[in-house]
Amino acid sequence: MNLHDQLGALESSLDALLRAATVPPVTGAAAQSVAASAAASVAASATDDIAEPPAPLPPRADEFEDTALAAADAQKQAPAESESEPESDAPPALTVSRPDRDTIQMTIAGKSVLLNPQGVSELIEELSNVRASMSVEQPMGVAPGWRFAATKNPVMAVQKHANGDRLLIMRHTGHGWVPFTFSPDMVVELYAMLTRR
Fold first, then answer.
1. Residue 69 burial (CB < 10 Å; 0-12/13-18/19+)?
2. How far apart are the first and last CA of the chain?
3. Model's pTM, two decimal places?
4. Where are the domains of the chain?
5. DSSP-assigned letter for residue 185
6. Are the beta carbons of 104 and 115 closer than 8 angstroms?
7. Which class for 49: exposed (0-12), middle (13-18), buried (19 or more C-beta within 10 A)?
8. pLDDT tens-digit profile of 125-157?
């Protein structure tokens, strides 16, 4: 399964969870149908690439009549500490960990995906394209304390366009191939900046 499929599965599962939280109470045969379709959806989106299976959602007492009695019994038997845990309305957080040098693990709402170097490169490229199309631009100045990994003497390729612009593509060890287009005036300015003492 490629990265797009993995992210799609995470996204659709998260959407299903959010929709389930806002659906009005369902009872009787309709409740069984909703539960069966939810179980089928979760089973269909499960893959071998998911590091650990998602935890099942606990049934809400107001959704199922039979569950109300079971929830009341469980609450009587549960220790007092569980009552002190407040429910959070915050959206699920993204957690990124690095189990080994050539793998990262991304977790959202209890669902994890392991990415190898190729998957990380695909994710960087996809996020970069999306970020470039957003209405809020990247900062114009370099922030103090900005952390970066510089590539010394990168591999480069240049292409000239009919209007005089130059396409310069440089290979960064983390970002991969990064393209820039320069107008003729900017080429002269860049040359001056690079040769200035």
1. exposed
2. 51
3. 0.49
4. 3-81+92-130, 156-195
5. H
6. yes
7. middle
8. 999 999 999 999 988 998 899 898 999 999 999
